[in-house]
């Protein structure tokens, strides 16, 4: 039994090669609890009531923009797993695409073509080194991208409108 065997992973994808690659990586990690959804409604319904450790989203979805899906997920306080770490598998690695993914609240981006080992390493990194989630007055809810908080960035002189609230992710221990 591996340290990942108790993890709950959701895959939201339609393309068989991506689904097979991610499932193979999860099998290698001995992840046993995997839910696959090809439609947004099913994925949201699952995330509303279940505690999930990682959400993997393919950006080649029909009928649903994956970045809108993640942004809506992040702001909906009725979703138990709204702060789940999200890995986006993207067709496009251009900086503007990655920036849009970051602004939507995605934790990690993998660019196609992806290999099973790359998927496995990114899932392990996401589970082993999760980013804190923050909420800022501008409306962003998602992973904290700041690498470090310097002393000069805090204190009485810090502008109130720039302060971020740290949100607990409750991954793996939230009530179902």
Automatic annotation (TrEMBL):
Keyword entries, A-Z: Phosphoprotein
Transmembrane segments: none
Residue numbers spanned by region Disordered: 144-176
Positions of modified residues (4-aspartylphosphate): 58
Stored Gene3D superfamilies: 3.40.50.2300
Residues of the Response regulatory domain: 8-127
Residue ranges of coiled coil: none
Name of this chain's protein: Response regulator
